[in-house]
Structure formats: C-alpha cells, structure tokens
Amino acid sequence: MPIPPVNYDGSPDSHVFHQFLTEGTAYVKDGQVEHERRVFILAHYLKGRAREFYTREVYGDPYHWRLRRFFTELFNHCFPIDFRMKQREKLNHCYQNDKTVREYIYELSELWNMIGDVAERQRTELWKKELNPESSLFHEVQSAAEVIKIMHLVPTRGCDCRAKDRRDGGNPNSKTGKGEGGT
Length: 183
Fold this sequence. Notes:
Blueprint: H1 14-30, H2 38-42, H3 48-58, H4 67-78, H5 83-92, H6 101-115, H7 120-123, H8 138-153, H9 161-167
Helix pairs in contact: 3-4, 5-6
C-alpha cells in the first residue's frame, strides 16, 4: 500500500518542496496511478499557495498535465524568481572546510537538486590525483575523496619511518643509524 505524501503548502522551502516531490512521485507510482491522473491525485495534498496554483493553472484540465511539468511550474510559482541563481551562488561558495566528505557531498547534492541542471562534468570538478574531470563519474570522485579522507585520519603505527630514513642516510641496511661507514 502506497504511503501518501506530506501536504505541501507552497512555502519556498527547498527541503519541504523536495520532500513533497519525492513522496508524491513515489505515491502515484507505487499506487500505479495512470499517468493522466497523477497530478489530479496529488492535488489532494496541496494547501495554501500551492493549492492556489493548482486552482488557477491546472484545475480546468488536470488530465493533460504530467508530473514533470506540474512540479516545474509549481516550483516556479512558489519560489522567488531568483532562487536558482542564489543557489548557484551558494554552490560557487560552498567549501568543505571542517565538514566530513559525506556531509560536504550531502550539501552539494542538496544544491544540485535545487538548481536542477548541473551536469555530471560540472560535479566532477572536485577531482583529485588520478581522477580526470573529463572522464570520471561523480561517484568515483566521491569514493576517492572518502578514501583520501580516511587515509589522512589513520595514524601511522610505530616510529616515524621518514625520520628513521633521514637518520641512517636513507640506507635500509644501516645498523648504526649514521649512514654507511658508521663513523
């Protein structure tokens, strides 16, 4: 049995809108609602400004609306005209700083979802070392970033091997700690 979506009141809150979009889509798909009836069914979960949009724009002919168009136009009606532009600015100034890789990826994903048209190539500009933004997939970049982060967190065991190498002149066979010749 499908779970109904939360009601959406038309507030310009990206988390609430995305929740309605995700839950609403799952509700009509899981319930196997015919494509031409999906928007009509979801209208029962609209309140306030979102319901006003439905009444003005969709009500006269709800069976010709498809979900993609409905969610796009509902978004455009409920959110400020410069919302995506502001999200792009936020994205351009979004840095990892002290966030974990997962927290940072989550924040980036939220922004990408709200902007809506960020290409895979743009997402991979976070590449490191052997990853190439021309050919790497974003999930490869994410995985590599998580591995690099873990490597930085793992303490080295025992002595500092680099310091030992400097003491014995880089000779692994030296027993004196003073390099070859032992003097």
